[in-house]
Write a structure and sequence with these properties.
Layout lengths: L2 H4 L20 H21 L3 E2 L9 E2 L10 H20 L11
Parallel strand pairs: 1-2
């Protein structure tokens, strides 16, 4: 039996952010962070030699999500939003504050 097979399945602890409510003013920030997360992911893949391909292929280093954020499906964008929202909720949960820029 391999070491990996013996290891128990890891479960991350609950985030503790279920009770954190986001003010409406932060929803624009969520969208900005979601797009940034996608762009950062894509930049990293491209620097590693990946390119767009209709199918995911680790061998050929092609990925169908190497497109601009606006070209992702609603479901794909929502996955990035979920990560961004979790990050913002964690920031607020730990006592940090966020506010809209003065020029908005």
């Amino acid at each position: 039996m391999t070491r990996r097979a013996r290891r128990q399945a890891w479960m991350p602890p609950p985030a503790g952010t279920a009770d954190v409510r986001l003010p409406d003013s932060l929803h624009a920030l969520i969208e900005i962070l979601a797009e940034e997360a996608h762009d950062n992911w894509a930049r990293q893949r491209l620097t590693e030699g990946w390119r767009y391909g209709r199918r995911l292929s680790r061998r050929r280093k092609t990925h169908p999500l190497l497109v601009p954020y606006a070209e992702l499906t609603c479901e794909q964008q929502e996955a990035d939003r979920v990560v961004a929202m979790g990050t913002v909720k964690a920031i607020l949960h730990h006592g940090y504050t966020l506010q809209e820029p003065a020029d908005r």
